[in-house]
Amino acid sequence: MRDPIDLLLHTLKFAAEKHRMQRRKDPDASPYINHPITVASVLYHEAGVRDLTVLAAAILHDTVEDTETTFEELREEFGAKIASVVMEVTDDKSLAKAERKQMQIEHAAHLTPEAQQVKMADKIANLRDVASSAPPSWPLERRMEYFDWGKQVADQMRGKFPKLDALFDAAYEQKPG
pTM for this one? Predict the structure, then answer.
């Protein structure tokens, strides 16, 4: 088995390289890598998750969706389990945005426990970001809709991870409007 610290450092290096040219849509255009690090931090520091697969998948969760990374590349670098969790939370970018969002709602309840934890932490991080530093182009209505959609996704996973449920609820309380 790979040393846990080595694995996490490898995932950080890999994700940072893959996302190196990307920026968040916040007013500061912060480096994109901050987001996967935040998702892993929510899991580890706030929800007490110690599952290495979940933490590694959190760091890698947007690599296939938002970069040229392939499932096969993830599998070769990190093994089938981590790659599988990443793929579970990856949207199919060939679909229209509205369809992708609806599919997240429909599929959330059927994700593995590992993928559900990553998905919940991602929603928590995103709600916090929209509440504190939304993209400047997002009017109030779009921010409110994002919160409501995030809740529809999270509601499909309720009851399995009480700490994540509570963190999501606290983030949702920051809903603008």
Answer: 0.97
Beta bridge partners of 23: 31
Query: How would you class 137 by CB atoms within 10 Å of its CB: exposed for 0-12, middle for 13-18, buried for 19 or more?
Result: exposed
Using an 8 Å Cβ cutoff, are 53 and 89 in contact?
A: no
Q: What does each C-alpha distance from 28 to 24, 60, 133, 146 come to in angstroms? A: 8, 23, 9, 20
65 classed as catalytic: yes
26, 46, 51, 66: which one is catalytic? 66
Say which of 26, 46, 51, 65 is annotated catalytic. Answer: 65
Cα distance between the two ends of the chain: 49
Please name which of 85, 66, 76 lies closest in space to residue 15, comparing C-alpha atoms.
66
| Residue range 64-117, pLDDT digits in tens | 999 999 999 999 999 999 999 999 999 999 999 999 999 999 999 999 999 999
| 66 tagged catalytic | yes
**Phi-psi sector, 107: left (phi>0), alpha (psi -120 to 50), beta:** alpha
What residues contact residue 135 under an 8 Å CB cut-off, 6+ apart?
25, 26, 27
Task: Measure the CA–CA gap between 98 and 144, rounded to whole angstroms.
Answer: 16
